[in-house]
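RECORD TYPE: inverse folding
INPUT: structure tokens
STRUCTURE:
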């Protein structure tokens, strides 16, 4: 699994994500405005807010979680 799909829960998780992002930046010498995994990170952030989406309707929270899992897998 790409580190961009990792929901950081510990300082080590954050270090792992930072190392992955740094790899992209070093590989491209900083010339990529959007790396190939930027949408993964966006979707991961949305899935981490599953409870927030569920406030409007439990189906919305379930949908974002399922979509995240589909893309991750």
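DESIGNED SEQUENCE:
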């Amino acid at each position: 699994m790409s580190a961009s799909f990792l929901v950081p829960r510990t300082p080590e998780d954050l270090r792992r994500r930072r190392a992955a992002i740094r790899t992209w930046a070093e590989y491209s010498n900083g010339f990529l405005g959007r790396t190939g995994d930027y949408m993964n990170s966006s979707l991961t952030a949305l899935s981490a807010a599953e409870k927030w989406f569920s406030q409007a309707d439990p189906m919305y929270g379930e949908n974002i979680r399922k979509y995240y899992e589909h893309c991750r897998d």
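NOTES: The chain has a mean pLDDT of 91.
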